[in-house]
Amino acid sequence: MSPIGSAGSAMSVQQIIDLRNQIINRSDALQDIHAPEADAARAAGPAPSFDATLQSMLGSVNAAQTRADDVGAAYQRGEVTDVAQVMLARQEAGVAFEATLQVRNKLLSAYQDIMRMGV
């Protein structure tokens, strides 16, 4: 027997309608709360292009690798004595490079999937 048709703890049709109306009211309230944020995002201008985002990401990876090289060279010259700082810079550069490699692999896979669709 379905919960709507059973007696006792089952919800009546009116209770279900009231619950639905409460959910709709809460949804409307949440949309009103977040509307200024969405308006501000639209006023800030268009979203950056894929190309600009990719260039920015590659620039930050390059900066991390350059920093790691600079810290390593400074350690070899004796200017930096904290080996943990050197290892941390190398790890950051390695993680950034691995993330970039994973993004490249995903983009290549998506490109190949799209090319197979045309056949």
UniProtKB/TrEMBL annotation:
GO cellular component: bacterial-type flagellum basal body
MF-aspect GO terms: cytoskeletal motor activity; structural molecule activity
Single Gene Ontology BP annotation: bacterial-type flagellum-dependent cell motility
Record's keyword terms, sorted: Bacterial flagellum, Cell projection, Cilium, Flagellum
InterPro entries the record matches: FliE (IPR001624)
Subcellular location, principal: other
Localization of this protein: Bacterial flagellum basal body
PANTHER family: FLAGELLAR HOOK-BASAL BODY COMPLEX PROTEIN FLIE (PTHR34653:SF1), PTHR34653
Family: Belongs to the FliE family.
NCBIfam families named in the record: fliE
Name recorded for this polypeptide: Flagellar hook-basal body complex protein FliE
